[in-house]
Design a protein that fits this description.
Bound molecules: S-adenosylmethionine
Oligomer: single chain
Helix content: 25-40%
CATH superfamily of the largest domain: Vaccinia Virus protein VP39
Strand order of the largest sheet: 4-3-2-5-6-9-7
CATH architecture of the largest domain: 3-Layer(aba) Sandwich
Number of strands: 9
Distance between the termini: 36 Å
Strand content: 15-25%
Structural class: alpha/beta
Largest sheet: 7 strands, mixed
Length: 294
């Protein structure tokens, strides 16, 4: 983790009131609609996201457009993907006259990101791809996994998430805070913190505080492994029962049994009684490569 910043406006209170321009909105809890109302944080995200004239910015969940305008002012082209039909027309009105903005109605988990990226980058002669969003918290992990594993050409991902999820994402593998998501993030990206965001910065205020992290995608994955998907299956199995020893948790994988796992752990020189959260990414890669040969 690099740079630790606390928002300049961290202590500003909004007393749960909708800010100017949000009056007609009835935020949907089910869609994770907590709208940003803190100008300082909005600027910090736009500024820290790498949005620039040569960049395609993909915004996830533009909502009422709080981030959309400052991002579009900086970006070469901005494609914003919003699932909620009732927000599409207001977003189009809000960005009317900005000819570098495209509002796409759809589910970020279902849209073809490769197609969006390839077409917009070539059509507008852009050089980098920046994904930005104040994420709907109910699908933070699947969104990040989709961005890391299936979308090609992304340079950075700057996203707001619940603080506890951010702690896992930014954790060093092999430390107490690490979780299953820590390993694919560390494999693909370098993480830095843009800002801590207290709950008062949203309307309506959620029950939790948030953090904005930036994931810069590495040119090469952090470790060598024969099959990254298989390695992440091992990580998932390890963390699915994180209190259990590796010997027990990994034997629950399809096609594995205790004998195979025990032999592999011995060959990898990893103590069978260790738990997943104590393993580095390199150690998971070693176990996975040995198991693939077994
Ligand atoms: N960007 C706005 C802001 O900062 O004020 C809104 C952020 S709000 C936390 C999350 C937004 O994501 C909402 O507008 C919600 O409708 C949208 N959303 C929820 N699920 C989505 C999905 N699967 N695909 C795209 N957008 C989604």
């Amino acid at each position: 983790m690099s740079s630790k910043k606390q928002s300049k406006n961290a202590n500003r209170k909004h007393h749960g009131r909708a800010p100017h321009g949000y009056g007609g909105l009835r935020p949907s809890k089910g869609l994770g609609q907590n709208f940003l109302i803190d100008e300082g944080i909005i600027e910090e995200i736009a500024e820290g996201s790498g949005a620039a004239e040569d960049a395609l910015v993909i915004e996830i969940g533009p909502g009422a457009g709080a981030l959309t305008i400052p991002l579009a002012e900086r970006a070469g082209y901005l494609a914003a993907v919003e699932i909620d039909e009732k927000l599409i027309e207001p977003l189009r009105v809000k960005t009317f006259g900005m000819d570098n903005v495209e509002i796409i109605q759809g589910d970020i988990l279902a849209v073809d990101l490769d197609e969006i990226i390839e077409n917009r980058v070539s059509e507008h002669g852009l050089k980098s791809v920046r994904v930005v969003g104040n994420l709907p918290y109910y699908i933070t992990t699947p969104i990040i996994m989709k961005l890391l594993e299936t979308a090609h050409g992304i340079d950075s991902i700057t996203v707001m998430m619940q603080k506890e999820v951010g702690d896992r994402i930014a954790a060093e593998p092999g430390t107490r805070l690490s979780g299953a998501i820590t390993y694919p993030v560390c494999y693909h990206a370098k993480v830095s913190k843009i800002a801590d965001v207290p709950r008062e910065c949203f309307y309506p205020a959620p029950k939790v505080d948030s953090v904005v992290l930036r994931l810069d995608i590495l040119d090469e994955p952090a470790v060598n492994t024969k099959d990254a998907d298989f390695m992440f299956k091992c990580v998932k199995a390890g963390f699915s029962q994180r209190r259990k020893t590796l010997l027990n948790s990994l034997s629950s994988m399809e096609g594995m049994d205790k004998e195979k796992i025990s032999t592999a752990l011995d060959r990898a020189e990893i103590d069978q009684s260790r738990r997943a959260e104590t393993l580095t990414l390199k150690e998971f890669a070693k176990i996975a490569d040995i198991l693939l040969e077994a």
